[in-house]
Amino acid sequence: MKKRKIFGTAERPRLSVFRSLSNLSAQIIDDEAGKTLVAVTSIGKKNKKTGKKTEVAKALGHDLAAKAIAAGIKKVVFDRGTFLYHGRVKTLADAAREGGLQF
Q1: pLDDT tens column, 75-85
Q2: Which residue stretches of the chain are H helix?
Q3: CA–CA gap between residue 29 and residue 84 (Å, rounded)
Q4: Which domains does the chain have, with CATH numbers?
């Protein structure tokens, strides 16, 4: 079975999530234009959140949703990549939904 590719458009950009052992990042991408519209990460002093990894994921999800709505984005296509939909990935997605994003 072949993996289906997820593609973001201007109407529904792609919400891509990357998870490493200690950090998490997410970005909303318009694949037609090839541009990143909104991005958040837990890396760096400016964006560093403290606490458990799931708490950091929840804070990033809320931040992402707030930035996306400020940029005029309400609907996205969720792309979890090769990561399973549980733990920090699920927490980030749930927090983004709570913040007002639809996917």
Answers
A1: 999 999 999 99
A2: 53-70, 88-98
A3: 20
A4: 14-98 (3.30.420.100)
